[in-house]
User: Which sequence fits this backbone?
């Protein structure tokens, strides 16, 4: 809620889930999150940390394997940083900036 | 008015089939009348069309003819107009029917004569004639694509009809490709349709794709998506890929431009975007998750649109040449993923995608997917994507058959043989389908605890409290749609201690409500 999104309290980020992933996150597509600025090892918060943080603090569903596998998002999930493929931004290593929009999309197969 | 008599529904179905046939017959009669009228007036109407372009004496000849005929004179007897026509039968690049039929798109600069001729020379392969393939095929046939191939081995089922718009009540039980071709022929007889009446296989993919310029992936499994993408990369065909589930859809134009494997300037393929297949447990089908007709319809229509853009070409972009080559001009659109969410705001979102992956298994210099591997069948796509068999998590003693349950419910107490195992008290029946499904139909006296709540909940959850309030002598029988989730739910309940260290029987209905319908109550709804 703070005006200064980069304040010492944490990083304000918008996290969104689509493609069915929202069902693992209380059936909510959009989450406003205050992420600690630095991770467990005092490194700048990156996408890998965000994924861990979401698992521990936001995801209430027990089926973690539907979101993460081998400590990263499972195959079939695209991570999009401000409407761009995370591969264009450095993947897991991308350091999260204030007010970033991070979208997790599960690929669909129906037709 | 409402009646459960099965005869009534048969009568209703027959009535609607008859009225559908009558409507079709009526349409045919109209077409015949129009064709006959045109046949009778062909000479004069053709003449006037041609004359509008021909102004030998400063005014259109048609006007001259009209005014001269009013004056009772002839213009030039030695050179009657009909003879001039006969000398140049191919005066216009399109037939008059084509000018009329495609007129509304012909007058747009995005299409024009050049675009229409490209469409007519193009061949497009549509794989899957379901919710995506039906609308895609209809628009491409309507637009005048020269040749359309359709691949599908499935037959038309009644649960397809809310979204698969080429099929109808009258074509139930027909092969989808045959049903589709009969619809498309009525829509536009000027297109060549090729029906492939079986599922695409790695062995048949290369040969099938070879004679097409462009491929549309309208299938519904990860295995087919990898196979189609691989074949497109190997043959240099651009691919328009879409998918849909529930209220959402996704669209990508892949391998565009379709450069050879190893050429980094080509567009990314499906493997570049999804190098590894998703775990089978995370894949949800339309049958399981549901699908809203217009959602998948929107995605199929968008596929047709992208195909038309690629084939007809736009000024300053790279387009697919009917001969397989590419016309290289300025940069094509950068790769993107379009997300559609019917209930989202905004509904559409376009995402910038990566380019080709330097280590892609299909389109890079490190490619391991080769034409030989594909043709020999050594690439097992089903194995690659994995599959989940039926869940088998419980012991036989933890399961009741539909027969056993029926016998028990018929009495006030449990049936003797079952009672020895389960206990004599009447069981509480816990239905773990989601609430929306439970509201559709349920066993009498059953109570609903949605599976999603069981997967989410901790010790303090409501569902546990609800079940803990059940008398400890009462067995707990868990039911679901097919008998898979119910087993997982039983495990969870035992983990939470609901079986009272073995004092209470907790088990499931083997085969779920489907088995109940098949073995006990045929009237139980099948959705
Ligand atoms: Zn690739």
Assistant:
């Amino acid at each position: 809620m703070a005006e200064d999104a980069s304040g010492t309290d944490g990083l304000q980020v918008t996290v969104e889930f689509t493609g069915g992933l929202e069902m693992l996150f209380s059936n909510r597509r959009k989450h406003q999150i205050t992420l600690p600025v630095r991770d467990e090892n005092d490194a700048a918060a990156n996408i890998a940390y965000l994924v861990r943080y979401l698992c521990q603090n936001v995801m209430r569903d027990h089926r973690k394997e539907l979101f993460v596998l081998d400590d990263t998002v499972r195959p079939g999930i695209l991570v999009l940083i401000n409407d761009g493929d995370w591969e264009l931004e450095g993947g897991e290593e991308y350091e999260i900036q204030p007010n970033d929009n991070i979208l997790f999309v599960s690929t669909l197969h129906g037709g | 008015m409402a009646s459960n008599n099965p005869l009534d529904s048969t009568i209703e179905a027959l009535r609607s089939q008859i009225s559908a046939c009558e409507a079709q017959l009526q349409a045919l009669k109209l077409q015949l009348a129009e064709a006959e009228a045109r046949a009778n007036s062909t000479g004069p109407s053709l003449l006037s069309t041609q004359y509008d372009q021909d102004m030998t004496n400063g005014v259109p000849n048609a006007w001259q003819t009209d005014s001269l005929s009013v004056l009772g004179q002839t213009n030039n007897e030695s050179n009657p107009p009909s003879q001039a026509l006969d000398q140049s039968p191919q005066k216009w690049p399109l037939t008059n029917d084509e000018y009329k039929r495609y007129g509304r798109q012909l007058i747009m600069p995005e299409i024009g004569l050049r675009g229409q001729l490209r469409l007519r020379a193009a061949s497009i392969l549509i794989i899957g004639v379901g919710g995506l393939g039906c609308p895609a095929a209809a628009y491409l046939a309507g637009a005048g694509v020269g040749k359309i191939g359709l691949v599908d081995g499935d037959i038309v089922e009644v649960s397809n009809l809310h979204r698969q718009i080429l099929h109808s009540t009258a074509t139930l039980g027909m092969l989808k490709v045959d049903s589709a071709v009969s619809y498309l022929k009525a829509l536009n007889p000027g297109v060549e349709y090729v029906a492939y009446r079986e599922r695409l296989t790695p062995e048949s993919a290369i040969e099938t794709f070879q004679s097409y310029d462009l491929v549309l992936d309208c299938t519904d499994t990860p295995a087919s998506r990898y196979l189609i993408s691989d074949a497109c990369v190997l043959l240099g065909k651009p691919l328009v890929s879409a998918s849909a589930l529930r209220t959402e859809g996704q669209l990508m134009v892949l391998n565009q431009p379709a450069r050879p494997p190893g050429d980094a300037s080509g567009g990314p393929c499906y493997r570049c975007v999804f190098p590894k297949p998703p775990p089978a447990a995370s894949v949800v089908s339309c049958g399981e998750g549901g699908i809203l007709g217009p959602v998948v319809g929107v995605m199929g229509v968008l596929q047709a649109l992208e195909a038309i853009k690629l084939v007809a070409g736009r000024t300053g972009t790279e387009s697919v040449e009917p001969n397989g080559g590419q016309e290289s001009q300025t940069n094509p659109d950068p790769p993107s993923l379009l997300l559609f969410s019917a209930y989202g705001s905004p509904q559409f979102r376009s995402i910038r995608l990566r380019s080709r992956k330097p280590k892609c298994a299909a389109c890079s210099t490190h490619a391991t997917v080769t034409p030989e591997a594909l043709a020999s069948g050594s690439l097992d796509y089903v194995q690659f994507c994995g599959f989940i068999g039926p869940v088998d998590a419980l012991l036989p003693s933890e399961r009741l058959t539909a027969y056993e349950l029926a016998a028990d419910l018929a009495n006030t107490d449990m049936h003797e043989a079952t009672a020895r195992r389960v206990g004599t008290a009447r069981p509480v029946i816990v239905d773990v389908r989601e609430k929306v499904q439970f509201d559709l139909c349920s066993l009498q006296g059953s109570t609903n605890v949605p599976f999603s709540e069981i997967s989410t909940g901790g010790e303090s959850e409501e569902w546990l409290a609800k079940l803990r309030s059940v008398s400890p002598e009462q067995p707990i029988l868990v039911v679901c749609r097919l008998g898979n989730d119910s087993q997982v739910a039983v495990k969870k309940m035992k983990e939470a201690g609901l079986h009272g260290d073995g004092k209470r029987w907790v088990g499931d209905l083997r085969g779920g409500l489907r088995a109940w319908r098949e073995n006990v109550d045929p009237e139980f709804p099948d959705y």
Summary: Chain A touches chain B at residues 18-20, 23, 26, 29, 60-63, 65-66, 69, 74-78, 80, 83-85, 87-88, 103, 105-111 (CB under 8 Å). Chain A has one domain: 10-106.
